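Here is an idea for our session: we take a single protein and study its fold together. Which protein we use is up to you, so please pick one and set it down. Once you have written the record down, we can walk along the chain together:
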Amino acid sequence: MATETEPLRFTAPGGHRLAGVLHHPRAAAGPDDPAARGVLLAHCFTCSKQVLTMTRLARGLAEHGYTVLRFDFTGLGESEGEFGTTNVASGVGDVTAASRALRARVPGPQALVGHSLGGAAALLAAPDLPEVGSVVTIGTPASPAHLARVRPDLDALPEGESTEVVIAGRPFEVERRFLDDLDDHDQQGAVAGLGRPLLVLHAVDDEVVPIGEGERIFAAARQPKAFHALLDTDHLLRDRAGSDRALALVAGWLDATLAVPATRS
């Protein structure tokens, strides 16, 4: 199926303009047409909408018939703002703004698909987004506090100043408020009260976020839910076979869970 893309810009809660790419396969024929259903992709921490995980999912789901939005979080890729001043709360706000921007373009139910910390932001944002009928996480930690293992000694770091942290072998400058904010989010509670179908995908050999983190998310969720361990791939699903397997699982899950109203508890 031929697909088309267009740039889409929208405003984050902090006033920054965020950059996205909208993939739509064709004009929607009605509310039961897959093209009338939106899929929002939230990329991994410090990545961008151009990471292969996002581009392959976006193109594949659009070819499958869905309208898909991938976007850059504040201060990353083509989005405005300073990444070093962001935190988990601002990421949740970015997901909320992106969901509403997609909702303005696509009338049907919506799915959130989040990778790594983008999955954490999706899980935390979903309870306040009634348009979301299904959620998918890929390589996602069970809590943002998982990043605490990269946390430096904060006692000597004044408010407003930044420090370097190393994540997945890459150095980044972040402010103290980012590190302090990691403990302020009840992601497990959000999962337990999600009230939407949840698919958890996790690479068995993930060295950035161990698969036990995905198992904790799955254990906290209520039905309907599913867990799939991805073999012979890494955190970023860089090999084609791994990303193709993830795409097939996500597409099948969305076909099943967006075809009927989401089950709410």
